[in-house]
Amino acid sequence: MAKIKKDTDLMDRRVYRIAAILIFGAVAIGFFRHFISLFIISESYAVTSPWLSSIFPPEMHGQVTSVVLIPLGLLVVTMFRNVVGISTFGTSTPVLLAIALRETSLIFGLIFLIASGLVGSFVRSHLSRLHILLIPALSIVLTVAATSMLIIVLVLHHQGSVPLDYFSPLSIVVITWMIERFAILQLESGTREALKTAAGTLFVAIVIYGIIRFHLISHFLLLYPETILIITGLLLLLGRYTGLRWTEYYRFRDLMKK
Amino acid sequence: MKKLNSTGLLGLNRRNASYSSVWNDSQHLARADDKLKAKAMLQEIEIPVPETYSVIEHQFEIRSFQDAKLPQSFVVKPARGREGRGILVIESHTDGVWRKKNSQLLSRLEWELHLANILAGLYSLGGRSDRVFFEYCTECHDVFSEVTYQGTPDIRILVYRGVPVAGMLRLPTKESDGRANLHQGAIGVGIDMAEGVSLHGVHHSRYTDIHPDTRKPVKGIRIPFWKNIVEIAVKTYSVFQLGYAGVDFVVDKLRGPMILEVNGRPGLAIQLANRIGLLDRLNAVDAYGKSIEEKTWQERLHIFNELLIDSVHRIPR
């Protein structure tokens, strides 16, 4: 079997070239569209009103914004995972959680997450004593967690502290998904590892939430969707980052001392 | 930053981008991940592995399983288990009661649940459904008896492109529950590749020189059958064709060295145990040119011996 090690320098150069094409190409397209819009006064070319929002009806604008924010969030997750070295449940979970937090507001999102997580793990610890098989047990936990979210919303609404629309479908999906990942990781690698990963996911999600809550950023992404090409270019560059992660400096601290 | 270059540390990013993804393709990884398949392949070229007594593939077989045919002491393993999860060491068993190595007793209900969970894929890579097998329970060799707690220590040899580059002795502790897994609290001890003698240890990423439970020094243990172990590790490449692999051995009191498993995603802690970054050694192997891995095992063993003379491959004591 002939196996030739790929020349790393060559690979690096290729990646740099593609990334440069993406980034500079996107900037060029953006400027071109901006330039054209100065001369052609037409609804669909006007840079001052985002063309994405002229395509979609107003009631869908929130969803369109969420979609263009996903690549930005993924860039942040990739940085945290590959450069900083924080572990998260999957790659997209922190992004989806951040978008869910945007819909529910930070505090109520966290209340949902923590409360249903606590209820879920309480149920799970009792189920394990009954010697229930894995998949039915997990399904019971998720059922209880989803129902508890409904109850929390009803209770909070009854007290008059929240309007009912805080109960967004996305937040239920994301939180249920997170509880499943947490339970599986807890079984596979122990509670400590699961808590560490949950904390990492939450931390990254809050950072992304802090970035995407600025309307300027989502507005810019709607105005210039070319930015997604720039993000792809940056992700390509991160894909060739082979240096140590920040957490590895800590892990290998005894070796570094020498 | 200067310090970093001098230690030549290999991080996860570089391991993934430049080593494991380049040298281990997914088909070969899948073969090594399935322990039953891996054992059969090793037996074909007469590499010693622990004997398999029996295999369970389906849920319905659990009830009717005749464990009376098994010897008193045996090990239960998931075929595609990872990081030593789901492994059950049984010391003795009578009708309906199983006694674990740590003297805990298992009832029939607990026993059947454990087997069912393995089949459901609870301990397996990617959570896919799995098989259970029962195998020979290795006995701890006398040289390790003072530096181990309950379990059997194992020896990991990191083999890069068919050439061994580093070794680590893994000692079970009370915390790791008799398992030789560093994540679970076992101790990793570096090995002098020329002599097969243990060096310093590492416990949870911190340097240590004594075993936390027996309080005995981990340094200076001469690993029995070291030359055989290295030779088998070199031969293993031809079986699995994983260019960046950890080959895990156990030295049995009666039967000598055997391969427990071949790991296609070996961790980075071996650097801490040997108190050295891996990059210099990996580069030294790469310096031998493009097709080292296609050479015969004798030629690769020769490269290993040549590298030993080179100072890069030896650890300052």
Strand content of chain A: under 5%
What percent strand of chain B?
A: 15-25%
User: Count the helices of chain A. How many?
Assistant: 12
Largest interface: A-B, 32 and 41 residues
Task: Describe what you observe in this structure.
The complex is a heterodimer of chains A (about 260) and B (about 325). In chain A, about 75% of the residues lie in helices and about 0% in strands. With about 260 residues, chain A is mostly helical. Chain A has a domain at about 85-215. Chain B has two domains: about 1-50 and about 140-315, D-amino Acid Aminotransferase, Chain A, domain 1; about 50-135, no CATH class. In chain B, the strands form two sheets. In chain B, strands 11-10-9-8-7-12-13 form a seven-stranded antiparallel sheet. Chain B has a six-stranded antiparallel sheet with strand order 1-6-2-3-4-5, covered by helices on one side. The two termini of chain B are about 25 Å apart. The interface of A and B includes residues 134, 239 and 240 of A.
Question: How would you describe this structure in keywords?
Answer:
heterodimer, A: 258 residues, mainly alpha, 12 helices, B: 317 residues, alpha+beta, seven-stranded antiparallel β-sheet, six-stranded antiparallel β-sheet, 10 helices, disordered N terminus
Spell out the blueprint of helices and strands.
The complex is a heterodimer of chains A (258) and B (317).
Chain A: H1 8-39, H2 51-55, H3 61-84, H4 93-104, H5 106-129, H6 134-158, H7 169-189, H8 191-212, H9 215-223, H10 227-239, H11 246-251, H12 253-257
Chain B: H1 2-7, H2 12-23, H3 26-33, H4 35-44, E1 52-56, H5 61-64, E2 74-78, E3 88-94, E4 97-100, E5 105-107, H6 108-119, E6 132-136, E7 154-160, E8 163-171, E9 187-192, E10 197-203, E11 206-208, H7 226-240, E12 244-252, E13 256-263, H8 270-274, H9 279-286, H10 297-309
Antiparallel strand pairs in B: 1-6, 2-3, 2-6, 3-4, 4-5, 7-8, 7-12, 8-9, 9-10, 10-11, 12-13
